[in-house]
C-alpha cells in the first residue's frame, strides 16, 4: 500500500525524468515517446468514461478533432504561438460534450456507444464540406513560423509528459475522492447507487465532460506535433479503437492498466512493423486478436489479473464487492476517502 | 415529378437498409447483444460473392447468394459458439459490445490485407440498369425486387418466429434464458442458430448492397451504422418498424443526395440524430 510520501517521491522522480529526457533521447525516440504519452492520456480519458462511468464511447475521435481544430483555427485567427492557445482545445471539447450529453444520455449501453459514433460521423462530414476549415484537404498550422524548431520536439515532449503526469495524478485524486467512489458505485449498480443518494446523471455528466476535455487537449497536442490536420485523420474511428484496445488489454477501470496497455500497444507496433516487417493492417489484426483473447480469458484486463497474482498495488483505487476474500481491500479505500 | 421519383427510389433503397438492420435486430432481440461486427460480416459476404462470381463467370452473379448465405450461416454459428457465447452471460453489459468491436477491427484489417483496399462492386449486367416506366416514373427493377424480397423475408421470419417450434424456442430463450433449460433447451445452442440466421440475413443485404453501390474493406462501419439506425428508428423488436425505419433513412439519403451530390450518408445520419432528439422510442412504439 503506497503511502502519500512514496507517491509524492515517485511523482517527483517522474517529473525529473520527463524534464531530463529530451537531453538524453534522440529526436526519433523523443517523438515516439511523445506519441506514447499522448495516447496514454487519451486512453486514461476513455477509461475514465468506460471503466469508471460505465459509458463506452466509440465516437471519442470527435473530441480529439474538436480540440485539434479549435487549436489550429484559434492560433490562426489570433496569430499567436499555438502553445499559448492550448487551453482553447479542452474548453471547446468540454463545451461540445456538455451540449451533446443531453440527447446522448437518454441512451444506455450500446445505444450510447453507437449514437456518439454517428455524431462523430456527422461532424466529420460537415467538416469535410466546410471550406472555412479546409474541407477534405485539411489545414496546415498557420502560425508554424512562430515555433522555434530547435526546441519544438523537446517542448512537445514536455507538454505531453506534463499532461500525462497531471492526468494520472488528477485521476488518482478524483478516484479516491467521494466523487470517484460515487462514480464507481454508479458503474457497478446505478439503482443501488441512487438509493444511497448518488446523483447518477450528474456523475456521468462530469466524467463525460472531463473525458472530452482531456481528449481534446491531447488531440490538439498530437496534431500540433504534425503541424497539419485533415478530417480523415482527425475523425478516424481508429482513435477510439486505439484507446479501447489499450484500456481493454491493460485493464479497464484501473489507473495502471492503460499504462501497461500503452507499453504493449507500442511494443507490439515497433516489433511487428519493425523487425517482422509487417504492415499496419496486420499490426491492428494482431492487436485485435490480443484484445479479444484478453477479453475472453481475463475480462478485466492483464493488469488486474497480474496484480491479483503477484499482489503488487501501485495506484490502487480499486475496490471489490464485499466478499470475504476482498475484506482486506475495503478499509484502505474508505481510509483514503475519509482522509 | 423528379421528387416523387426520388421518394420512391428512397423507399426502395429503404427495403435494402431494412435488410441490413434486421439481422442486427434479431440478435439484439434474442440475446441483448449489439453485434458491432455485423457490418464487417456483411462486407465479408460481399467479398465472397465477388470472389465466387469471378471464379464462375458463366453463372449469373445473383445465384452466388445461395452459397454465400449458407456460408454466412455457418460463419455466424461458429462465431457465436467460439467467441460471443463466452461473454453473452457476462454481468457486465459492456463485455459483448467491446468483444464484437474487437472482432470488427480484426475482420476489417484482415480484409484490407487479403483483398486490398480497392473499391469493388458486384456486376450483375443488364439487371442493374433495367427499369420500369410507370406513369412517367422511372423505377429500377433491381431496387423493386430488393424491396419485395425484404418484405417477403420479413414475413417468413415473422412466421418462423411465431408459428414454428424453432420460433417458440427462440422466443422462450429470449424471454427467460435460465428457465428454458428446464424444458431441455440449450440456450447457447439456440444463440448459435440465431447468430447464423442473423449473418445469413446480413449476407443478403450485404450482397445486394454490393450490387447497388461499390464497397471497400472499410465499408463495414458505414453498414453497421445504417443497420443500427434502422433498428433504433424502427423501435426495438419490431420487424415492420425496421422496414419503416429503413424506408425513412433511404428517403433521407436520396433527398440529401439530390440537394447535395457528395453528401453520402450525412442526411441519413442527421435524420437519425434528429429523431433521437424528438422521439427516442422510435417511429413505432416498441412492443415487448
Summarize the structure.
The complex is a heterodimer of chains A (339) and B (288). In chain A, 72% of the residues lie in helices and 1% in strands. With 339 residues, chain A is an all-alpha fold.
Can you describe what's shown?
Chain B: Its main location: membrane. The complex is a heterodimer of chains A (339) and B (288). Chain A is mostly helical and 339 residues long. Chain A has one domain: ABC transporter involved in vitamin B12 uptake, BtuC. Chain A is 72% helix and 1% strand. Chain A contains 15 helices and two strands. Chain A has a two-stranded antiparallel sheet. Chain A is globular, with a radius of gyration of 20 Å. Chain B has 288 residues and is mainly α. Chain B has one domain: Orthogonal Bundle (ABC transporter involved in vitamin B12 uptake, BtuC). In chain B, 69% of the residues lie in helices and 3% in strands. Chain B has ten helices and two strands; from the N terminus they run ααααββαααααα. In chain B, strands 1-2 form a two-stranded antiparallel ribbon. In chain B, β1 and β2 form a beta hairpin. In chain B, α2 packs across α8, α5 crosses α6 and α9 crosses α10. Chain B is globular. At the A-B interface, α5, α11 and α13 of A face α4, α8 and α10 of B.
What's the structural blueprint in terms of helices and strands?
The complex is a heterodimer of chains A (about 350) and B (about 290).
Chain A: H1 4-24, H2 27-52, H3 61-78, H4 88-104, H5 109-129, E1 139-140, H6 152-176, H7 178-188, H8 190-195, H9 200-226, E2 228-229, H10 231-234, H11 238-250, H12 256-273, H13 280-297, H14 302-310, H15 330-338
Antiparallel strand pairs in A: 1-2
Helix pairs in contact in A: 1-6, 2-6, 2-9, 2-11, 2-12, 3-4, 3-9, 4-9, 6-7, 6-9, 7-9, 11-12, 12-13
Chain B: H1 2-31, H2 38-55, H3 65-82, H4 94-115, E1 131-134, E2 137-140, H5 141-163, H6 165-175, H7 187-212, H8 219-234, H9 239-259, H10 266-278
Antiparallel strand pairs in B: 1-2
Protein name (chain A): ABC transporter permease
Organism (chain A): Bradyrhizobium macuxiense
Membrane topology (chain A): Multi-pass membrane protein
Amino acid at each position: 500500500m503506497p503511502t502519500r510520501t512514496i507517491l509524492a517521491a515517485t511523482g517527483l522522480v517522474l517529473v525529473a525524468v520527463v524534464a531530463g529526457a529530451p537531453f538524453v533521447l534522440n529526436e526519433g525516440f523523443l517523438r515516439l515517446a511523445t506519441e506514447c504519452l499522448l495516447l496514454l492520456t487519451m486512453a486514461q480519458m476513455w477509461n475514465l468514461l468506460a471503466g469508471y462511468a460505465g459509458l463506452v464511447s466509440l465516437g471519442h475521435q470527435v473530441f480529439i478533432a474538436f480540440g485539434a481544430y479549435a487549436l489550429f483555427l484559434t492560433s490562426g485567427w489570433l496569430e499567436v504561438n499555438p502553445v499559448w492557445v492550448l487551453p482553447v482545445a479542452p474548453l471547446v471539447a468540454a463545451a461540445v460534450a456538455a451540449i451533446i450529453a443531453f440527447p446522448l444520455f437518454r441512451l444506455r449501453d450500446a445505444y450510447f456507444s453507437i449514437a456518439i459514433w454517428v455524431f462523430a460521423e456527422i461532424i466529420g462530414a460537415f467538416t469535410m464540406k466546410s471550406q472555412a476549415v479546409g474541407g477534405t484537404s485539411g489545414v496546415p498550422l498557420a502560425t508554424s513560423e512562430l515555433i522555434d524548431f530547435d526546441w519544438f520536439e523537446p517542448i512537445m515532449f514536455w507538454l505531453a509528459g506534463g499532461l500525462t503526469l497531471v492526468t494520472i495524478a488528477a485521476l488518482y485524486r478524483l478516484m479516491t475522492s467521494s466523487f470517484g467512489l460515487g462514480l464507481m458505485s454508479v458503474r457497478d449498480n446505478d439503482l443501488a447507487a441512487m438509493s444511497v443518494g448518488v446523483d447518477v446523471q450528474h456523475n456521468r455528466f462530469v466524467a463525460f465532460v472531463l473525458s472530452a476535455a482531456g481528449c481534446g487537449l491531447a488531440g490538439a497536442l498530437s496534431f500540433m506535433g504534425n503541424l497539419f490536420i485533415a478530417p480523415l485523420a482527425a475523425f478516424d474511428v481508429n482513435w477510439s479503437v486505439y484507446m479501447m484496445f489499450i484500456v481493454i488489454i491493460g485493464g479497464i477501470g484501473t489507473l495502471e492498466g492503460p499504462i501497461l496497455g500503452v507499453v504493449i500497444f507500442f511494443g507490439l507496433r515497433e516489433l511487428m512493423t519493425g523487425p517482422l516487417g509487417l504492415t499496419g493492417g496486420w499490426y491492428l489484426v494482431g492487436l485485435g486478436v490480443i484484445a479479444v483473447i484478453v477479453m475472453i480469458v481475463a475480462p478485466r484486463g492483464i493488469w488486474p489479473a497480474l496484480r491479483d497474482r503477484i499482489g503488487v498495488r501501485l495506484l490502487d483505487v480499486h475496490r471489490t464487492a464485499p466478499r470475504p476474500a476482498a475484506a482486506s481491500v475495503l478499509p484502505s479505500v474508505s481510509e483514503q476517502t475519509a482522509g | 415529378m423528379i421528387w416523387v421519383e426520388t421518394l420512391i427510389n428512397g423507399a426502395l433503397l429503404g427495403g435494402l437498409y431494412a435488410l441490413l438492420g434486421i439481422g442486427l435486430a434479431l440478435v439484439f432481440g434474442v440475446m441483448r447483444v449489439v453485434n458491432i461486427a455485423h457490418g464487417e460480416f456483411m462486407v465479408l459476404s460481399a467479398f465472397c460473392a465477388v470472389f465466387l462470381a469471378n471464379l464462375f463467370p458463366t453463372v449469373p452473379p445473383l445465384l452466388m447468394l445461395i452459397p454465400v448465405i449458407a456460408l454466412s450461416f455457418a460463419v455466424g454459428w461458429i462465431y457465436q459458439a467460439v467467441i460471443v457465447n463466452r461473454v453473452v452471460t457476462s454481468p457486465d453489459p459492456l463485455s459483448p459490445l467491446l468483444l464484437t468491436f474487437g472482432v470488427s477491427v480484426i475482420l476489417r484489417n484482415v480484409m484490407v490485407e487479403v483483398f486490398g483496399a480497392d473499391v469493388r462492386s458486384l456486376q450483375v449486367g443488364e439487371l442493374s440498369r433495367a427499369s420500369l416506366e410507370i406513369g412517367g416514373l422511372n423505377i429500377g427493377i433491381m431496387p423493386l425486387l430488393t424491396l419485395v424480397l425484404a418484405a417477403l423475408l420479413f414475413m417468413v421470419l415473422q412466421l418462423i418466429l411465431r408459428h414454428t417450434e424453432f420460433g417458440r424456442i427462440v422466443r422462450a430463450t429470449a424471454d427467460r434464458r435460465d428457465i428454458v433449460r428446464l424444458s431441455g433447451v440449450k440456450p447457447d445452442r439456440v444463440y448459435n442458430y440465431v447468430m447464423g440466421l442473423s449473418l445469413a440475413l446480413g449476407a443478403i443485404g450485404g450482397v445486394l448492397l454490393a450490387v447497388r453501390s461499390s464497397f471497400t474493406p472499410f465499408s463495414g462501419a458505414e453498414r453497421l451504422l445504417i443497420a443500427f439506425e434502422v433498428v433504433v428508428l424502427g423501435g426495438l423488436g419490431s420487424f415492420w418498424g425496421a422496414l419503416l425505419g429503413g424506408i425513412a433513412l433511404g428517403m433521407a439519403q436520396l433527398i440529401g443526395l439530390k440537394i447535395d451530390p457528395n453528401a453520402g450518408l450525412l442526411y441519413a445520419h442527421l435524420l437519425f440524430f434528429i429523431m433521437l432528439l424528438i422521439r427516442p422510442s422510435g417511429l413505432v412504439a416498441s412492443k415487448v
